[in-house]
């Protein structure tokens, strides 16, 4: 399996390398107010891809922060036992106390 993944990575690399070699001609991008940028086509495509990734990540940051804070609040709201019982007849504290949340059956 490890060799198959390396083969896949090599195929992707050589495909992108061939794409870069085939797109070396200059292309011009025209912006507003008469501004223009002339660069190899592969550099323009790579820049557009990088800008798209950056905009996507920046668009997700507020949602990630909200989810992190909600998870932190939920974790702090969990009851923490003062001292674990030394001689518990049950295998787990969740089984001994029905008020504690039960773990998922399949580990999901």
Characterise this structure.
This protein is mainly alpha-helical and 108 residues long. Helices cover 57% and strands 9% of the residues. It is built from three helices and two strands. It is elongated.
User: How confident overall, as mean pLDDT?
Assistant: 82
Number of separate strands: 2
- Strand content is 5-15%
Shape: elongated
- Sheet with the most strands, sense and barrel status: 2 strands, antiparallel
Q: N-to-C SSE series?
A: HEEHH
Helicity range of the residues? 55-70%
Low-confidence stretches: none
What's the N-to-C terminus distance?
Answer: 26 Å
Q: Helix segment count?
A: 3
Structural class: mainly alpha
Characterize the quaternary organization of these chains.
single chain
Q: How large is the radius of gyration?
A: 27 Å
Report strand order across the widest sheet: 1-2
Quick overview of this protein structure:
57% of the residues lie in helices and 9% in strands. The chain is mainly alpha-helical.
Main attributes?
3 helices, 2 strands, single chain, elongated, mainly alpha
């Amino acid at each position: 399996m490890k060799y198959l993944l390396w083969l896949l990575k090599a195929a992707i690399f050589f495909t992108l390398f061939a794409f870069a070699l085939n797109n070396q001609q200059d292309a011009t991008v025209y912006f507003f107010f008469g501004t223009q940028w002339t660069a190899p086509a592969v550099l323009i495509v790579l820049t557009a891809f990088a800008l798209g990734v950056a905009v996507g990540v920046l668009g997700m940051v507020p949602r990630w922060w909200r989810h992190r804070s909600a998870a932190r609040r939920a974790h702090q709201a969990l009851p923490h036992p003062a001292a674990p019982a030394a001689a518990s007849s049950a295998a787990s504290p969740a089984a001994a106390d029905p008020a504690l949340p039960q773990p998922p059956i399949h580990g999901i």
